[in-house]
Predict the structure of Type II secretion system protein.
Amino acid sequence: MLAKHQKGFSLVSIVLSIVLMSFALIIITTSLVPRSQHNAELMYSTKAAELGAAVMDEIVGRQFDQNSGPNGGLPVCEPAEIPCTEPDYLGEDGDKEKGNRTLYNDVDDFNNLTGSVKDVLGNDLAGIYPNFSISIEVFYDANLDGKPDAISGNLKRIVVDVVDPSGQHYAFSVIRGNF
C-alpha cells in the first residue's frame, strides 16, 4: 500500500513566516510612533493657542489702569492730572484683590500671575488643560521695544506665556493703550 502525502506546512516554513512577519511589524511600528508623537504635539499647540487667546481676552477686557475710566479709558490717566500706576506698583491693588480674580479691574492686576490654569472665577481648569501652566507679565512699553519702561506711559504690554505638558513655551503678546 502506498502512503498518502500529508498536506500542510513544515516547521521550517512556519518559523520563517513568523520571523518575516515580526520584521514587518517592527518596521510598521517604528514608522508610526513618530507620527503619533507629532499628533500629540499638534494637540498641545492647539490647546495652548486656545488657552493663550482665552487668557488674553480676559485681560484685555479690563480697563487700562486703576486710575483710568472703564469706558474706553475715559478719563485717561495722565501724569499731570490723575497719574497712572507707577511701574513698580503694577499688580494686584491691595489685599482685597489678593488672589481674587473676580475683583481684578485693570490689566496690570494680572502682572506676575503664574501657576496652574484658572478661569476668571478662580476655578481650576486642570481637567481641560492638564499639566499646562501660565505666567503673565504686564509692563509699560511706550517705545514698543518689548522691554519694561522705568516710567509710566500710555501703552502697556501684556505677555502671556503658556507652557504645555512637554515643556514647550507659547508666548502671546498684545499692547493695551490708554486712550
